[in-house]
Amino acid sequence: MKQLTAKQVEELLNENQSLNILDVREDDEVASGMIPTAKHIPLGQVESRMGELEKSKEYIMVCRSGGRSGQAAQSLENQGFDVINMTGGMMSWEGPTE
């Protein structure tokens, strides 16, 4: 599975790269802030909401520390999606949130 650090993701955003970020944290966790442009689908809903995602796009998976996003990335990868796990999760994120 491909991985990027939080810093690498922040640098890509700063270069105005068009990123598809998927935040799999729970509702109460995202209330404290999400990476700008991120889409929120809680981990427990990823499989049932897979239809909202496009296999032609690459997705960067985010959670609090990198564990749940790794599970979600593995699940989506098994279904043929192109995914990257953001290691360290939001605990490592130093960029802006909204």
Describe how the helices and strands are arranged.
Elements: E1 2-5, H1 6-14, E2 20-23, H2 27-30, E3 39-40, E4 58-62, H3 67-78, E5 82-87
Parallel strand pairs: 1-5, 2-3, 2-4, 4-5
Number of strands: 5
Find the CATH topology. Answer: Oxidized Rhodanese, domain 1
Structural class: alpha/beta
Low-pLDDT sequence parts: none
Report on the biggest sheet.
5 strands, parallel
- Main-sheet strand order equals 1-5-4-2-3
| The level-1 CATH class | Alpha Beta
Alpha carbon gap, first and last residue: 28 Å
Question: So how many helices?
Answer: 3
Helical fraction equals 25-40%
- H and E string: EHEHEEHE
Rough outline = globular
Radius of gyration: 12 Å
Number of domains: 1
Question: What is the annotated CATH architecture?
Answer: 3-Layer(aba) Sandwich
**What is the overall pLDDT average?**
97
Description:
The chain has 98 residues and is an alpha/beta fold. It has a single domain, classed as Oxidized Rhodanese, domain 1 (3-Layer(aba) Sandwich). The chain contains 3 helices and 5 strands, in the order βαβαββαβ. The protein has a 5-stranded parallel sheet with strand order 1-5-4-2-3. The longest helix is centred in the C-terminal third of the chain and has 12 residues. The radius of gyration is 12 Å and the shape is globular.
